[in-house]
């Protein structure tokens, strides 16, 4: 009976501790066979009425199990536990050998042998029990470690998630900051630009004032000199000089008078430039009043067109209007805004005429059709005006300077270089708006006016 | 008619003398010149009740034309001369102030002498 218990529980112990049922099905099959073998053996043992020789079959069976355990590396971890049944097998075999070889000696000491075997048997189970307990502790520790690992893994994952989330946030913030920096830079550029314009405007006005006084004298004195020449001529006639002398003197006087007229003419020219410059300094030429923007723009477009037509009969251009009919009346400085329109249209017409002239010179006119377009739009309390032409356009270095006073690309005498600088002043300072320009050299130019509309003042 | 011209630019004198040559020769106009506000006041004190018309610049070093106008209107309430202000700065602030202080007319530079002559003749 003790053989059965030892073999049965040893096999069972191997199965549970190595978890062969799930991990190693081929070994499990063999172990199950071993288990049934031990059950079969115990059944045969009792069926054959417990013969003594049967112990040797048991001994062989147990030795087989031990040999298998100690020869196969699969059972390496169990060898220490399996060793515990060695004393049991050894004692059983000594007992059985003694019983077979000297039955007398065995009879004399059979109770001693039985006690020793029983002791070895108990020792087996005691050690197994102890090992089991130890293993349970180990198992528990292992499970704890596993759980800890899992917990730390989860923590790590959550940390990683947090980190990636933070990184994303930081990236967003960085992008936002970069955008802000760019905006700041462009604002700074605009500020520098408008500051430059303002100081240039002031300087221009200051110079104009200083020049105007001496220029007035030049003009006045040359005018009065012309009058004096006429008087002189009259006096010569009264005198008693000879005719040839009179003629000669009159010739000189005529030259003198002509020179004075030239001085007056150029003085007047300078005067008109100075007047243009002075318009810069005038804070405002009047009161803001409700004006039909569309009709104002249209009026000045035609004015500029016919102004150019009067000088150049050949000139023609398509006038395209795209007016927003919902604009109605808006509070502006009508004369100043009119001047802006006039400047923008004059420039636009000049650009298309210039392009046409250049194309004709190249003999490459093709189907070029000069076109100047005005479009207006009211949107979100702002008035947008675009003046577009398909003329010569301008390169970047010209574009950078066009709002500076005295900058002009026109030939001497055709432009003062004050038109756009004044327009800039009127839009930014007079109306609190924005005037900017976009151009593709050789193709087109677009001036864009943006004026904020104050609803409460709107008529 | 005696006219006092007040301007810090000395060339104004020869300009007026040439521009109004005929009128001066015929004795219609009689011009005197002062080159500062202070000088104009002392001239007025030295020649009381002679000057009929004063043409004054506004922007002058020292006493300005506006100051001069105020002094004339307070110191010479009797036999007040006509005062015409002339300025390069045709802004409304100067204009309003001059008118408020009792200026009779307001001209901007460059002076239109044809217009000025007509005005002076009409006063005469």
TrEMBL record, chain B:
Residues 2-124 form the Response regulatory domain. Keywords: Phosphoprotein. It comes from the Bacteria. SUPFAM superfamilies: CheY-like. Coiled coil: none annotated. The modification 4-aspartylphosphate is found at residue 57. This is Chemotaxis protein CheY. It comes from Dyadobacter linearis. The lineage of its organism: Bacteria, Pseudomonadati, Bacteroidota, Cytophagia, Cytophagales. The gene is cheY_2.
């Amino acid at each position: 009976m003790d053989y059965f218990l030892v073999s049965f529980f040893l096999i069972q112990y191997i199965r549970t501790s190595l978890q062969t049922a799930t991990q190693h099905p081929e070994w499990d099959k063999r172990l199950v066979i071993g288990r049934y073998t031990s059950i079969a053996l115990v059944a045969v043992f009792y069926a054959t009425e417990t013969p003594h020789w049967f112990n040797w079959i048991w001994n062989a069976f147990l030795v087989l199990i031990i040999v298998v355990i100690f020869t196969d590396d699969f059972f390496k971890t169990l060898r220490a536990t399996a060793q515990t049944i060695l004393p049991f097998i050894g004692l059983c075999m000594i007992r059985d050998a003694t019983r077979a070889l000297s039955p007398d000696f065995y009879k004399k000491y059979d109770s001693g042998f039985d006690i020793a075997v029983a002791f070895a048997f108990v020792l087996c189970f005691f050690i197994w029990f102890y090992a089991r307990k130890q293993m349970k502790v180990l198992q528990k520790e292992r499970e704890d470690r596993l759980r800890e690992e899992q917990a730390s893994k989860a923590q790590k994952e959550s940390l990683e998630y947090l980190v990636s989330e933070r990184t994303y946030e930081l990236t967003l913030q960085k992008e936002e900051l970069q955008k802000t920096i760019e905006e700041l830079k462009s604002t700074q550029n605009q500020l520098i630009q408008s500051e430059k314009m303002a100081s240039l405007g002031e300087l221009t006005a200051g110079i104009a004032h200083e020049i105007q006084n001496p220029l007035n004298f030049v003009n006045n004195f040359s005018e009065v000199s012309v009058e004096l020449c006429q008087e002189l001529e009259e006096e010569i006639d009264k005198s008693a000089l000879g005719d040839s002398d009179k003629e000669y003197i009159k010739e000189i006087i005529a030259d003198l008078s002509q020179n004075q007229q030239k001085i007056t003419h150029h003085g007047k020219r300078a005067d008109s430039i100075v007047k243009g410059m002075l318009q810069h300094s005038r804070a405002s030429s009047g009161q803001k009043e409700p004006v039909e923007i569309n009709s104002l723009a249209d009026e000045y477009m035609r004015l500029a067109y016919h102004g150019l037509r009067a000088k150049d009969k050949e000139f023609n251009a398509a006038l395209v209007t795209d007016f927003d009919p919902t604009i109605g009346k808006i509070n502006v400085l009508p004369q100043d805004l009119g001047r802006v329109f006039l400047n923008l249209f004059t420039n636009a017409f000049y650009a298309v005429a210039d392009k046409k002239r250049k194309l004709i010179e190249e003999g490459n006119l093709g189907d070029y059709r000069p076109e100047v377009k005005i479009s207006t739009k009211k949107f979100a309390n702002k008035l947008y005006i675009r003046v577009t032409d398909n003329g010569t356009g301008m390169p970047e270095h010209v574009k950078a300077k066009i709002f500076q006073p005295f900058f002009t690309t026109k030939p001497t005498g055709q432009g003062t270089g004050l038109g756009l600088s004044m327009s800039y002043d009127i839009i930014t300072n007079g109306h609190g708006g924005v005037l900017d320009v976009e151009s593709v050299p050789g193709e087109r130019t677009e001036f864009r006016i943006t004026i904020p509309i104050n609803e409460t003042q709107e008529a | 008619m005696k006219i006092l011209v007040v301007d810090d630019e000395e060339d104004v004198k020869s300009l007026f003398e040439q521009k109004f040559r005929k009128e001066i020769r015929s004795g219609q106009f009689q011009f005197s010149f002062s080159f500062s506000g202070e000088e104009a006041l002392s001239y007025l004190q030295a020649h009381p009740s002679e000057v009929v018309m004063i043409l004054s610049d506004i922007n002058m070093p020292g006493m300005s034309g506006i100051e001069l106008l105020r002094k004339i209107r307070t110191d010479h309430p009797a036999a007040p001369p006509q005062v015409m202000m002339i300025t390069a700065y045709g802004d409304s602030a100067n204009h309003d102030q001059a008118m408020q202080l009792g200026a009779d007319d307001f001209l901007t530079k460059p002076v239109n002498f044809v217009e000025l002559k007509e005005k002076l003749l009409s006063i005469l």
